Amino acid sequence: MMLSSVQVFFTAVIVMFSFTQASPLVSSIHSRDADAANDTLATASIKTFAYTKQAIINTLALSNGTSTLPEPTGLSLKYATIGRGVQNYTCVNSTAQAIPVAIGALAVLYDITAQVLLDPANISSMVDTAANMPASTFILRNMPLDIPAVGTYPVIGEHFFQADATPTFDLFVVGKRAFCKLTTKINAPETSSMGIDGTGSVAWLSLAAEAPSVGIAQVYRVLTAGGNAPPTCAGQAANISILYSAAYHFYA
Ligand SMILES: *[C@@H]1O[C@H](CO)[C@@H](O)[C@H](O)[C@H]1NC(C)=O
Ligand SMILES: *[C@@H]1O[C@H](CO)[C@@H](O)[C@H](O)[C@H]1NC(C)=O
Ligand SMILES: *[C@@H]1O[C@H](CO)[C@@H](O)[C@H](O)[C@H]1NC(C)=O
Ligand SMILES: *[C@@H]1O[C@H](CO)[C@@H](O)[C@H](O)[C@H]1NC(C)=O
Ligand SMILES: *[C@@H]1O[C@H](CO)[C@@H](O)[C@H](O)[C@H]1NC(C)=O
Ligand SMILES: *[C@@H]1O[C@H](CO)[C@@H](O)[C@H](O)[C@H]1NC(C)=O
């Protein structure tokens, strides 16, 4: 089911509002830097073995089976997140002769760093579960992501993008920002989820954070579920918002 523009507009207004006025709820949630979380895990000996940074990097999906995104050489995982939102497209008319054109995206980012450090192999299944949660749970900027029977993950920030501008990640809870440039793009694996709107999954990306980014050097978008445009504009409105989820990982 696609979000109506009224719904998306409304949630976008909430996003803009909350953006200027950080909610006490969100501000009070202490989000974990991967290094800090690791210290906690090591001290508490929650697991009898410790994942190394390289093991975590190796476990994060970077390959679609035939192509692989470049590894984050010399960098450490800082934040592992799940993003949920919309990819926006426009149609010049509603015929099959017109093809949707990408105009931007908007997503809320949830912090799963601690979970990833405990069990990096499970991210894929978490993202998949989150991707298939009801449409009404997308772009809820003011509440955590509750994955039934798995855990509750706080908002850490948001992602926004306009096709003619810079992909931006604002991790406002931890005061980090990334203004990005695409470096590598590979198709989502053929076995990827079709997404809630049934259109298939957007590509996997490696993005370089550029000045004036703060505390982030590289961003990955992987394990995508949904977000592709419909194949043509047949029967579509002028503005289309397609629901999607993805794992976004931040390195520095
Ligand atoms: C976690 O800490 C251990 C022990 O200090 C270290 O060997 C390991 O590389 C660290 N892992 C990460 C992900 O930082
Ligand atoms: C719809 O747009 C397409 C692509 O620009 C064009 O080829 C086609 O003639 C248009 N159809 C109508 C009915 O306007
Ligand atoms: C996405 O589309 C919705 C309307 O459907 C709009 O409110 C939002 O601003 C758009 N965002 C971007 C980045 O295009
Ligand atoms: C992994 O995630 C799935 C679905 O999100 C969940 O059912 C399962 O309990 C998780 N496993 C672990 C070990 O966290
Ligand atoms: C992986 O991505 C490449 C580049 O986009 C594409 O050519 C290839 O078909 C993809 N492989 C699979 C298995 O989807
Ligand atoms: C589509 O979105 C643009 C802005 O992105 C807006 O100017 C236009 O009014 C929208 N059209 C409709 C039919 O909602």
Automatic annotation (TrEMBL):
Swiss-Prot/TrEMBL keywords: Signal
Keyword Signal in annotation: yes
Keyword Ribosomal protein: no
Top-level taxon of the source organism: Eukaryota
Signal peptide: 1-22
Pfam families registered for this protein in UniProt: DUF3455
Full protein name: Malate dehydrogenase
Species assigned in the record: Calycina marina
Species classification: Eukaryota, Fungi, Dikarya, Ascomycota, Pezizomycotina
